[in-house]
Amino acid sequence: MGSGTIVIKMKNGGKYTFELHKKLQEHRMAGTNIDNIEVNIK
Q1: How many angstroms separate the CA atoms of 10 and 1, rounded?
Q2: Residue 27 located in a structural domain
Q3: Model's pTM, two decimal places?
Q4: pLDDT per residue over 1-42, tens digit each?
Q5: Dihedral angle over CA of 25, 41, 17, 22, nearest 10
């Protein structure tokens, strides 16, 4: 299984980072304004 991270940048300048080997918990970001999603595969 590959390693890497997902970086989700918010319009208000905030940032969420997720490890690819962990489950992405969508409910943690409910109601947020996503500006950009960046995926880095290593």
Answers
A1: 28
A2: no
A3: 0.43
A4: 466 788 888 888 888 887 776 665 555 555 667 777 777 766
A5: 40
